[in-house]
Fold these 4 entries.
Entry 1:
Amino acid sequence: MASSSGNDDDLTIPRAAINKMIKETLPSVRVANDARELVVNCCTEFIHLISSEANEICNKSEKKTISPEHVIQGSTATSRTSAGASSQAGSSQDEEEEDDL
């Protein structure tokens, strides 16, 4: 039985699943443990972000259960936000590179 002791392991994707995904996706590449941990953290953050967006959409539509459509809409909203943030980050990085010249 899972306890709610605030353990972060209860809130992450199983490391074995990530290891399997990496091995299947990149069979001839060795991946450092730090990189594997970073992938776990990124996946966990992504799931939290999408589920939060889906929950907000679900609440706005006055539903009690998150449906696949809520998840898709949450993913779309997150993609737009991420794309905007990425383009802003890329823009500022370009400016820094120009300053270095």
Note: The chain has three helices and no strands.
Entry 2:
Amino acid sequence: METILILLAVLVLLTGPVALVLSILSFLRMKRLERHLRSLTRERQGAKPPALATAQPQERQVAPASTMPSTTHPHADRTPPPLVAPARAAAQAARTSAPARDLESRIGGEWLTWIGVLAIFFGTAFFLAVKLGEHPLAGQGQVWVGLGVAVAFLGTGRLVAGRSGLFLGQGLLGGGTALVFLSIFAASAFHHVIGSTTAYALLAGASLLGAVLALAEGSRTVAGLTLTGALVTPLLLEPTSAHPLYFPYIAFVNLGAVLVRIRRNWPGLVLGAFLGTAFLVLFWWDESYGPDTRTQALAGVGVLWLLYVALPFVARSTHPVWRLASSVLVLANGGAGGLFLWAWLGETPYLRGISTALLGLVYVILARLVPKKLDSRTDRADAVHHVYELTGLALGAMALPIHFDLETVTLGWALLAFVLVHLGLVRSSVGHRVLGYLVLAFALLHHGLFDLETSGLFRRSYADDFLVQWLAGLVAVATILGIAWRLQKARKDGVVLLPAEARSGTPLVLLASAFLLYLLSVQVWRGLEGSGERRALLGLSLAWALYGGALIGVGFLRHYRPLRLAGVGLLLALVVKMFTLDISVLDRGERITSFIGVGVLLLVISLLYQRGRRRPSTEQEEGS
């Protein structure tokens, strides 16, 4: 049985070289064709056109001067450059034949290369994983075979890449780097010929080797394969134990990714390194975190956090997409730092909010230091400054619900939202304004879902919390109206706004009105539900009638049509409620009181509405 397995492994190993040989032959044939094509091109360019070789300069006869204006184009007598038509024909022919040649080159030079490399890689992997028992190649011999194949790949890749064999060289170098990681993993996890400490040291060396090769060849492929092998191997090497070299190794890999990114300006490399590292830290946390490893976690995550905090100071991105990705990376690093502090301080929860706020303060201080460090690169300094400041402000917003509870969070978020929008308008910063809108949305959701206790998560005394709930709700409503006023003032002052911001005046006013109606309805219902559902429905009808009339009155006073329409809509909703719900639930006396009271209010509102519409106004109706 062992002999059959060995033969199968040998056959698998042979399929790779066969494909690789075919790839090399195709590559050599393509090179010969390219050399032949270049020689033909040089011969064609060296040949002199017959018309130019025999043409003799002729004396130009000047016609007598004429007093009539010339109707001929000033350059009409110039002859066109020679061989224009043949050159265009050759270019057209080249464009016509390019797709076929490119497809052939791609199949012969790229696809066969990767198929051959993958075949040899998997064949070597199967050979490293098979148990050979007492065979002389068992264990250490298998590892040496894997390393030998890797060295052969790397040496051949360097040789071919030096002779302009781009695809073949990259394939061999990438496959060789992956085989080095695979051999180290097999030596430690399968055959146990080396310990974990030695394995981590060898993995660091393999990562360094891959980085050097990627820099030397300018190959993103080699860099990506090296990073993948460096981050995946620890998952298989130490899945359950807290090895002391785990975090130092991860920090070494990330430092290498940052240095390669600075040297070659490959921003995608550090983005992949950050995402892979976040997964490794979460995996380690789930498997190995405990009271004995808290110091190790703090030191390891702290070093990684500092590394990505310093990255924008030393690296830059020119492409807009990668600039955006770098900004998201700074925000993600700050969020990861805050999440780590929240989990790490689980035994002292009162420090969670304070530590998150201090972390946000660190980012704000760094934002103030950025222009001093990057004063010669204004655009870059300004972008980094805004990213750091927004990260710090976002962490400050996160600290509020971590440290405080219920209405205090709503109050803090509402005030912070107005400050952010105001700063964004003063500094012409879209990022500050967008963050302010998000914080305001969270404040409204928090007040509606938690402060008013509509979900039943917290049951407290209505009398104790009535004032503070109203205060938080009114502050949120005032924040919405304040932002609407601030945007209108900025538009009049000529501040450049987003299209949605320029049209947000009326929607914000209606949002404030709707949220105040929700607050009023919940408070009326909670205050009267103890006396029964029918009393609560009756009180709700009267509250809606009064609030609808107030909206119409304010709409007339401010000459603001949207408010009047909102009031009319609320009154129509009240009528529907009375004739569908109240009429079937209220008893006879309550029904009479409800219909008569609401009817009188509607008549008064109708009278005021008609008088207001007949009153002449010199001001233009807003929103009409």
Note: The mean pLDDT is 77.
Entry 3:
Amino acid sequence: MRIKSEFCFLLLFVYILIYGVPCSSQNIIEYTINRNIRGIDSLLKADPSCVHQTDERGASALHYAAWFGDTISAELLLKNGAKIDHQDNTSSTPLVWAVYNRKDIMSEFLLNHDADIKWHDRGSNNLLHLATSYGMTHLMELFLEKGMKVNEGNKYSVTPLHIAASINSAVMARALLNHGADPSLVCSSGKNAFHCATDYESDSVLMILKSIMKEPGEIKFPDLYGEYLGMKIPDTIPELFAPGLLITPFFIHGQIAFSENLEEMVWSDNAQPVTRIWYLRMEDGKWTVPAPMPFSEDFYSAAPYFSADGKRLYFYSTRPEKPGGDTLRTIWYVERENDSWSQPVRVSVPGWESKFIGFPSFSKKGNLFFYSNDQENNLGFCDVYISEFKNGSFSKPENPGVFVNSPSEDLEPAISPDENYMVFSSTRQDNIQNNIELYVSFKKPDGSWTPATNLGSTVNRGRTWRPYITPDGRFLFYNSDHTGIYEYFWVSTDIIKNLRQKYFTE
């Protein structure tokens, strides 16, 4: 279960490699990153108090030793008084850093030095959840021996056994069951471990569960009726969409999408070992139980998007075009075949056959909007691009220019159905929180785009990205982590109409 914190830790590592460590660290953190034992020892002898120094993230040298799995530096730091349970700005200890970076030996080293295991992230995941999701069997067993509660659920009642069942780890499932894991417990989407194993075709775990469960029980997914799953319709104040109902048991990943008639919904989760696309539809006025799309089970698949006529489902995926071929990071589609879907077909975009094309969005005209970091004329690290649909094929993509793209990252455009505006995520410097946030750019009568406008603090709370505009143009969906995990929020597009009116009347 790759939750949002893993992505944040990856960004942290990239930041360190590019920019180094802030000067306030006075080199002990830099020495630790470089595994300069002599340098660390020299600094500690000159000034023993430097062992407690932290950087702008609140992390100590021991955090970095834990991240890189450097037990030699960690031993030296601990002998000189480093606090083993010091928390950084996100309340994460060195042990948490070690687990996030899958450092088994370091994690065990810290446990042997009595590191505290009473930690939860903002989504109520504990260290047992993390170790299970990362397949760290030995560490999971150590946590169980330390007395961690085997049946403790996270924010949406996902237990470690749900996770082990979904990743088909028979070894972990047996260990959890031997420590008293209850296979009948259900998460917020109404599924127990047996249901999770069934969804992910985890045959090894299914054999174990069948031997101990007389009946798997019914999925306790709630009865949902009406458009948008019958959820409360939001106004210009964003609302959480279907909280807990889309847990698979992994958290969401990528944008949500609806068919033109609003009777089908797709999204992707953050499953291990590959992200998958999930689907539900309305039958006789009632929404079905969520199920995974069969074509997404073997390769990373995310960011689904229905064509306007509903005959195709586009999505981003990393997969070869032919068995044994090179892996392509691009957009694919499947075609509807009665009640099933075809095999994936690569979308042909002129000049971009081997380039990265990410997270598609389509207007009713069929024009394609996407982002890429694989083009020489990028204005920033990632840029938004537009490919017009003409005579049954896509044209060579064009960069909409400096009013949309910036020297930073500009990602995941969501085009309105009438193509009058696009919403996209960006890390540009004028954002509100020094984070990734949503912006809007309006299309002028001459076809050019207005300077991007931040959607404001009502929408941009925490890491906010992966927007989607519904086919009826009424709502903006997006991902945000300000509740502690990534969840879908939605809001009336009146907030965008108000910004448009303000922009064109000033």
Note: The chain has a mean pLDDT of 92.
Entry 4:
Amino acid sequence: MAARTSLDEEQRAAAMAVIGDEEGGMVGERVASGATAACAACREKSATSVRERSEWTACDVVRARESGNAVLVAHGSVYDATEFIERHPSGPAPILRALARDNTEDFDMHSARARGLWEKHRIGRIVRCEIHGFGEFIPPESSASCALM
């Protein structure tokens, strides 16, 4: 079976049903203040493929998710779980639910062996968007922030 490069329509529909309006709106709305499109600053910097960049803004993650990629963020690292979604031991539902939020808690609840599998899918790190900051994602520990903000 060929590796899947993005979520199929059925999985997207399932993801939207799971993450839809549960928490007051889609994740893109929370990141981009009512608009699901990524901000212009991030759009100009982004590469065409999920695997072509190592630095991701919150807007990049939202756009990749909207394009059908199962992109997760945990401890400031960005992971592409798209090809793993069908092989997840609990099925696709946990990953589909995870597309609505930061995934640090999900990462931490996994065993050391499972965290090793996450690392095989690591594609980059989250960086601050000039407009939206880190959005809903927990910034990496190495990100110094102003004490006044």
Note: The chain has a mean pLDDT of 74.
